[in-house]
Design brief:
The structure is a homodimer of 178-residue chains. With 178 residues, chain A is of the alpha+beta class. Chain A is 39% helix and 15% strand. The first copy, chain A, has a two-stranded antiparallel ribbon with strand order 1-2. Chain A has a two-stranded antiparallel ribbon with strand order 3-4. Chain A is elongated and about 55 Å long. The relative contact order of chain A is 0.10.
Amino acid sequence: MEGDETVEETALRELKEETGIEKVYLEQFHVFSKRGRDPRGPTLTIALFALIRSHQCKLFATGDASAAKWWPAYALPSLAFDHDQICAKALDALRAALKTRPLAFELLPKAFTLYQLQDLYEQVFGTSIDKRNFRKKVQKMDFICASGKKTEGGRQRPAMLYYYDAKRYTKFANEHFF
Amino acid sequence: MEGDETVEETALRELKEETGIEKVYLEQFHVFSKRGRDPRGPTLTIALFALIRSHQCKLFATGDASAAKWWPAYALPSLAFDHDQICAKALDALRAALKTRPLAFELLPKAFTLYQLQDLYEQVFGTSIDKRNFRKKVQKMDFICASGKKTEGGRQRPAMLYYYDAKRYTKFANEHFF
DNA sequence: GCAAAAGTGTTAATCGTACACCCATGA
DNA sequence: TCATGGGTGTACGATTAACACTTTTGC
């Protein structure tokens, strides 16, 4: 941490320095402090995950000359110290977060198709979901709104583009929980 | 933090020093690092909540001469710095934890009645739950087991004592989620 | 035409919810 | 006898889960 930065500001700065990516959703998930986790001496690691919109991921690949690179979460290379455990816990935290809060919309473009949304959940949870049941459920969530526009230039039939309405979600959540 | 303690060890030591309570369940919920949260300068607070079994709470009241004291979460006294915000976030984290994991059993005696379990959920979530529906649901959870023993010396009809079986929970969770 | 995704309903089973009364104990 | 919790079943509505085919587009 530099100057009087907060944890989140530090993470955003480092992420931008290493990958060029900015303006992402950040969430803390654990502080690692076990003895011996770094042979150089006692350390405290405050771990956060960042959610990066899918269309921004390619910017990263064409970034500067740093060693940063994408890896699938289920096939990481071997990492220094206890960083493999940190990544494993990050995945758990991500799944728990996606189950209980509307964070899928931080991973998709602002305008997305229902296929993209379903695919996201299937990939994160490693399940397959029935398309009709999924769409039926989405229709009941009035914070997922059809924009009226459709995809263009895809290899397939144009699909309706949806967007996430955070204000409607708040109302929805207040009515459905507690 | 002293010596090469972990965050959890520090919290357990401090808790014991201040209140005499030990061997509790601890869980991290947030790191507070906002500028200006402590006028004395930049600080980093790693916040944890502890779950203390109800029958151990009275030990606390008869503890040493420290200023530690029980307060209801919905009527806290005014606290230093941003500690009111930390407590508010602790309550949120506690509710989220109790909804998604079997942590109620860290708050009850090892042997508990169904009334105690229901009362716990009602108090934490501020709701009232139908007794018959609650018991029906508990019956389906085979990790909540009748011990065969009953309460003695209460003011009421003796009640069956139940216990939590962590191994069965693991099996149950694997079958019911994902 | 073919590959890829878009879109669309019905049925059966399960789950959640609402609801009221008698019982055993200690004070 | 009274206060306090202990203990029990049913019926209705809502939700979930299983399941297959036609459409539109680019190549």
